[in-house]
Design goal:
Elements lengths: L11 E5 L4 E8 L2 E9 L3 H14 L5 E8 L5 E5 L9 H9 L4 E2 L5 E2 L5 E8 L6 H18 L3 E14 L1 H13 L3 E8 L2 E9 L2 H14 L7 E12 L4
Antiparallel strand pairs: 1-9, 2-3, 3-8, 4-5, 4-8, 6-7, 9-11, 9-12, 10-11
Helix pairs in contact: 2-3
């Protein structure tokens, strides 16, 4: 379940594209590390990844984990799962929390990755790696998985419904998309269609959308508020 957007201080954050995961594998002194990072919106979903990999790789010695949840990243958990304290879960968590996702204000690094669960499965190779070696291995496994992760920007947006005739709905949808407006599903009924729209949670953006709709419909179209929600935007460019 998505967090209540009205209770969050953040208006956007970065996460994995829905239905995707990222995987990386390392071998260090015959120990094998398999990292899996997946989108998770709740603690139950995050822990489900641990359970899934524990069942799938029951022959492994460790199934270490970390996850970050919520637009404000206020839920952060990690587990060493039998490794020496602080050598697995915390380095994994730091790899998530400190991950650069873009450029912020004044050229600063943007680190806003959230709603992600990471698990690193380790098969012991017979040689002890030491605390420093374990920290590097678990951190690097998660970082390498994130290198290939399909990321999206999750934005708090105002939802609207736009009534339109069957004949005009397709044209209006296309022109709104061409103008950069996020168009959601369109509901068709006997009396006509209703186009779903998502607009940035910003008064200027809403005002501009009202003007655009008025121009496209010769003043006949009226946006009807339909709440506030989190909406995925196109993939984050790799800077």
């Amino acid at each position: 379940m998505d967090p209540d957007p009205l209770l969050s201080r953040a208006t956007r954050y970065t996460t994995l594209a829905a239905g995707t995961e990222a995987v990386a594998e390392l071998e260090i002194k015959r120990s094998r590390f398999l990292a899996v990072v997946r989108r998770a919106g709740t603690e139950a979903e995050a822990r489900a990844l641990v359970d899934e990999l524990r069942r799938g790789f029951h022959d492994a010695r460790h199934h270490c984990s970390a996850f970050v949840l919520g637009p404000d990243r206020d839920v952060q958990r990690s587990s060493d799962d039998g490794e020496p304290a602080g050598t697995a879960g915390i380095p994994m968590l730091e790899a998530l929390v400190l991950r650069r996702t873009g450029t912020g204000p004044r050229g600063t690094d943007l680190t806003d990755l959230s709603d992600v669960s990471a698990v690193v499965v380790r098969w012991f190779g017979g040689t002890l790696l030491g605390a420093g070696g374990l920290v590097r291995a678990y951190s690097e496994a998660v970082s390498q998985a994130l290198d290939d992760a399909p990321l999206v920007s999750r934005q708090r947006q105002r939802l609207y419904r736009l009534p339109a005739s069957h004949a005009d709905a397709g044209r209006i949808e296309n022109e709104l998309r061409a103008a950069g407006t996020t168009v959601l599903e369109t509901a068709y009924a006997a009396a006509g269609a209703e186009i779903g729209l998502a607009l940035p949670d910003d008064e200027d953006a809403v005002t501009a959308a009202h003007s655009r709709v008025a121009a496209l419909t010769s003043g006949a179209g009226v946006l009807r508020p339909d709440g506030v929600d989190w909406v995925d935007s196109p993939a984050v460019p790799r800077a």
